[in-house]
Design brief:
By secondary structure, the protein is α/β, with parallel strands linked by helices. It has a single domain (about 5-160), classed as Vaccinia Virus protein VP39 (Rossmann fold), CATH 3.40.50.150. The protein is built from eight helices and seven strands; from the N terminus they run αααβαβαβαβαβαββ. It has helices at about 5-20, 20-35, 45-55, 70-75, 90-105, 120-130, 145-155, 180-195, and strands at about 60-65, 85-90, 110-115, 135-140, 155-165, 200-210, 210-220. A seven-stranded mixed beta sheet has the order 3-2-1-4-5-7-6, with helices on both faces. Helix 2 runs antiparallel to helix 5, helix 3 (about 45-55) packs parallel to helix 4 (about 70-75) and helix 6 (about 120-130) runs parallel beside helix 7. The longest helix has 16 residues, at about 5-20.
Length: about 220
Amino acid sequence: MSLDGWTRVDAYIEATLLGTDPVLEAVLAASHAAGLPEIAVSPAQGRLLALYVKMLKARRVLEIGTLGGYSTLCMARAQPEDGRLVTLEFDPAHAAVARANFEQAGLAARIDLRVGRAIDTLPEIAKEGLGPFDLVFIDADKPSNPDYLAWALRLTRPGALIICDNVVRDGAVADPASSDPRVIGTRRMFEMMAAEPRLTVTAIQTVGCKGYDGFAVALVGD
């Protein structure tokens, strides 16, 4: 099936199973108006993240890569009332759009948005004792995926989930000869996941309006 077909099915899933969501639609509209890249998770994928948060009853969530805050709000709205979500964004312009979206959604008080290189911000989070986190969602620069995984392992508890987006990359992840730094970073992360005895891992291939890609999902053990 082509991208047009996948997009048509996504639209059917959204209309039939998700319904309209003015808050999230406003986030996408604001992000588009601000010229942000159209790389946020799809509505169906956002609902999947929300379901993971609900299933875990995740009070503490860490997100690496905010963009306009679409996935952030999907997860924050699924948290318990006393939940807290920390999200990291490198680009100040993207962060400004996300912050306005959080205010508009009425959830700014529950979301801690940090601006700067995640690899610099993560040690600060550890030092501040904001963990352990119940769920970590990694969706930032792909060459740094191995570093983000290492920090996720450090900042989570047994029973937590670590989820990483864009791991299939149109099938390029299966190419050992790829010179793409995004593929190399993802493959290195997969190797780390496979070698880490604390993790039980799988990857889910996805198709839809975002093309052909997928998630890695890892359960943290003792």
